């Protein structure tokens, strides 16, 4: 399944080195994981987003995915895609950018025609074929309706989705240059948060996180000195402070690393999809790799 990774150390800008698709060279093993895209989103010093992404497929050169990419940013958003909707190209590869915000999603949402109808003129924000980018456009629409309040926009959008279209999973991350939002919904896939003190649990360690082989690894020497909040699809080290988000929980980390958590969806989707309801391709993408 897709892997999400978000990190914020705001207000500090820190350097972090990412390995996306940290996989062996064996094409047999790569094919088993079927990585359909890798992406990393950061922010320049002026606050503008910087996205690096490629539709890296199992048969392709994995150099992009394996390369260490050292970037400096207050927030980071990394994603490894296992495609459920849309062809394998850059337009469909996460993270997506709209209005200076970045977005990545793990899950499957049906009813794309209904979402498109709800978007109206905001359909112009969608450049690809994925459910994810349409969800992001709906969030952007709702943020505008709420006068730029990103939290209110996310809540409005995901409540409409939960009530109006079939949902299998809707785990998502949104970042700005200094803030991060994470939602887990429903309980189909896990999503974890770690509020990491400077230096980690022992106070003297850099950050060195590794997901399952073929997903995401990250290293930051700066986080021996600065605290951070990390959100990931899996616990990435042995730190006992990793916590699973509850179904319907929206996490917001502001520009001073203050964490607020709220249950914004307290019931399953009105039209909850089972794994057996998915197409063969979508079902394969939602299986843990």
Automatic annotation (TrEMBL):
PROSITE patterns noted in UniProt: GATASE_TYPE_2
Keywords associated with the record: Glutamine amidotransferase, Transferase
Domain of life of the source: Bacteria
Residue ranges annotated for the Glutamine amidotransferase type-2 domain, each copy included: 2-256
Gene3D superfamilies with a match to the protein in the record: Glutamine Phosphoribosylpyrophosphate, subunit 1, domain 1 (3.60.20.10)
Molecular function GO labels: transferase activity
Pfam family, one: GATase_4
Keyword Transferase set for record: yes
Protein name as annotated: Class II glutamine amidotransferase
Organism (species): Nocardia panacis
